[in-house]
Design a protein that fits this description.
single chain; alpha+beta; Umud Fragment, subunit A; 2 domains; 8-stranded antiparallel β-sheet; 4-stranded antiparallel β-sheet; 4 helices; about 30% helix; elongated
């Protein structure tokens, strides 16, 4: 087995390892994933070791190595290539398919509680009533001591592009119709609110949500910092749709 490892085979493996490490570096550098699932320091360590191992190949031109040393080097490079490739596919999977997350707030109680484990669909369809993960962005949102740029919040979509709505007497009026919010806990209180409190609306015209924007709120209305406070969220801020919640060991229920 050791005798089968020649210079050309090592070079091919080193090139493959270098390319994989470069791709993983670009994913990390340009933050294609807006949140951290795999520890970034672990990724940096893998990338650094991969480049060091790749760079060591230069020494094969100047220093004679035994067949056993070549074999060990090749196996090390092969392992790192497989690891880099697996991490790349994991990152792509999280970006385009789904990812796990843990709720770290009480603003969605009782639908979601602090510490709940959920599955988020990365490219899930955003609709009224859906629970979503929103990334705070100072470009669109009012930042203060409660939230900061880049924070991830779990909220429910109340209204979307083109919608006109208001809350009055603890009731949601959406596009001229009363909407039953059956996802709210018994006794929930929502203060009166109109869209023109956060949006400049043309005089004499009905105030509607602009294209590509959404109004989000927490189900725990009296303890939720949401669009009533920081404004509308752009579609680019919606990281994904919360689909499932862990109910017990190997037991997952749909989030409604």
């Amino acid at each position: 087995m050791e005798n089968n490892i020649n210079g050309k085979k090592i070079i091919r493996k080193v090139i493959a390892l270098s390319l994989a490490a470069i791709i993983l570096s670009l994913i990390l550098l340009f933050r294609l994933l807006d949140f951290e699932i795999i520890n970034q320091y672990f990724l940096i360590a893998v990338i650094a070791v991969s480049f060091l191992v790749s760079g060591y190949a230069v020494l094969f031109k100047y220093i004679k190595h035994s067949d056993k040393q070549k074999y060990i080097y090749y196996q090390t490079a092969d392992f790192l290539f497989i690891l880099n490739t697996a991490l790349i596919f994991l990152q792509i999977f999280f970006i385009f398919v789904l990812f796990p997350a843990t709720v770290e707030q009480d603003s969605m109680r009782p639908t979601l509680n602090d510490g709940d484990e959920v599955i988020v669909i990365s490219l899930g369809k955003v609709e009224r009533g859906k629970v979503v993960i929103v990334k705070v962005d100072e470009k669109y949102n009012e930042i203060n001591g409660t939230v900061k740029d880049g924070d991830l919040l779990v909220k429910r979509v109340i209204a979307g592009p083109g919608d006109a709505f208001f809350f009055q007497n603890n009731t949601l009026f959406l596009n001229g119709m009363i909407v039953e919010e059956d996802y709210l806990p018994a006794g929930a209180i929502t203060r009166d609110f109109r869209l023109d409190e956060i949006l400049e609306c043309p005089p004499g015209n009905e105030c509607r949500i602009p294209e590509d924007f959404y109004f989000v709120m927490g189900d725990n209305r009296q303890n939720s910092y949401d669009s009533r406070n920081f404004g509308l969220v752009h579609k680019s801020q919606i990281v994904g749709v919360v689909k499932y919640r862990r109910m017990g060991f190997l037991d997952w229920g749909k989030v409604k």
